Amino acid sequence: MEMPSYQKVKDKMTTRRPHISIITLNVNRLKSPRKRHRVAEWIEKQNPTICCLQETHLSSKDKYRLKVKGQKMIIQTNCTQRKARVVVLISDEIDIKIKKVKKDTEGHFIMIKEIMHHEDVTFINIYAPIREP
């Protein structure tokens, strides 16, 4: 007897990753190779589904320097200056389909509309510094 197709999909999702874990971290600059390595090791040990980083201060061309084992996708804000910048890392253990990504020009937020576990999800990573008057 053959298993119904919805059961096959459910079993496949369960074996890949049955839950979602999200970590958010203000890294306060990742210019130093040593600090990038320490942060990458820490993220790898935590093994999150989604990891949000704020205040990376990395430019778009520096994106390759932020490699974390087990994270297949890096979505970063596009900002012309080395300002705050936010980054979202997505695990390679989750089946995800990105529908839309919205970023601001200041590098302070990323909004991702996606399909995760057959559900529509909207996810936002925000860096909101407190400005003194």
UniProtKB/TrEMBL annotation:
- Residues engaged in binding Mg(2+): N26, E55
Q: Identify the stretch annotated as signal peptide in this record.
A: none
**What GO terms fall under cellular component here?**
nucleus
List keywords of the entry alphabetically.
DNA damage, DNA recombination, DNA repair, Hydrolase, Magnesium, Manganese, Metal-binding
Listed cofactors: Mg(2+); Mn(2+)
| Reactions catalysed according to its record | Exonucleolytic cleavage in the 3'- to 5'-direction to yield nucleoside 5'-phosphates
The Enzyme Commission number assigned here is: 3.1.11.2
Please provide the Gene Ontology terms (biological process) for this protein: base-excision repair; DNA recombination
What is the superkingdom listed in this entry's lineage? Eukaryota
Note on cofactor: Probably binds two magnesium or manganese ions per subunit.
UniProt-listed Pfam families: Exo_endo_phos
Where in this chain does the record put each Endonuclease/exonuclease/phosphatase domain?
A: 23-97
Q: Which GO terms describe its molecular function?
A: DNA-(apurinic or apyrimidinic site) endonuclease activity; double-stranded DNA 3'-5' DNA exonuclease activity; metal ion binding; phosphoric diester hydrolase activity
Q: What family does the database annotate?
A: Belongs to the DNA repair enzymes AP/ExoA family.
Record-given protein name: exodeoxyribonuclease III
Its source organism is Rousettus aegyptiacus
The taxonomy runs:
Eukaryota, Metazoa, Chordata, Craniata, Vertebrata
